[in-house]
Amino acid sequence: MKKSVKYIIYLAVCALLVVLDQITKNLAVTALKGKDNAVWIKNVFELEYCENTGAAFSSFTGKQGFLLTITSIVLILIIVEFVRIPEGKRYAALRIDFLLIVAGAIGNMIDRVKQGYVVDFFYFVPVNFPRFNVADIYVTVAMAMLVILLFIVYKDNETEFLFKFKKK
């Protein structure tokens, strides 16, 4: 398959993931905003509408400009590295991983730009875990997967290309 066709497929998958995130957030606004929590498993898991003006665990609350700048830089770096991933099945998991990071970052970035906050709605009651959304799941799964890939799956020499910039 041509490289350009592969990139179109990657772009379509990323767009589909972003759309899924945005649909779930819109459903959360419609079904949960201003209403009682939707209890799925009593005392364990609920859906609760939350407007998060920060990042993970509400860090950097109210610092939208900073968060947009950091997200933009991370997106550019990940996209550059995505393009540099060698061809072949050996790196398919790394491509999926980077797609998840990009989709999650874009999904939350859309919220920040559009409304100045990110819609969160998943809530684990017993641990009083911060509310989160589908884009957060993408990024969290991708980061866990990245650790596994870099420390268990790939040998050091198989990832030397990552974040290695040529000196002039």
Describe the structure.
The chain has 168 residues and is mainly alpha-helical. It has one domain. The protein is 57% helix and 11% strand. It contains four helices and three strands; from the N terminus they run αββααβα. It has helices at 3-32, 64-84, 92-115, 134-153; strands at residues 38-41, 45-52, 118-124. Strands 1-2-3 form a three-stranded antiparallel beta sheet. A hairpin with a 3-residue loop joins strand 1 (38-41) and strand 2. Helix 2 runs antiparallel to helix 3 and helix 3 (92-115) packs antiparallel against helix 4. The protein is elongated. The chain starts with a helix and ends in a 15-residue tail after the last helix.
Query: How many discrete structural domains?
Result: 1
Mean pLDDT reading: 90
Strand content: 5-15%
SS content category: mainly alpha
Number of helices: 4
- Shape type: elongated
SSE order in H/E notation? HEEHHEH
CA-CA gap between termini? 34 Å
Radius of gyration using CA atoms only = 18 Å
Low-pLDDT regions: none
Layout of strands and helices, then pairs:
Layout: H1 3-32, E1 38-41, E2 45-52, H2 64-84, H3 92-115, E3 118-124, H4 134-153
Antiparallel strand pairs: 1-2, 2-3
Helix pairs in contact: 1-3, 2-3, 3-4
Quick recap of the structure?
Helix content is 57%, strand content 11%. With 168 residues, it is mainly α.
Keywords for this structure?
11% strand; single chain; mainly alpha; elongated; 168 residues
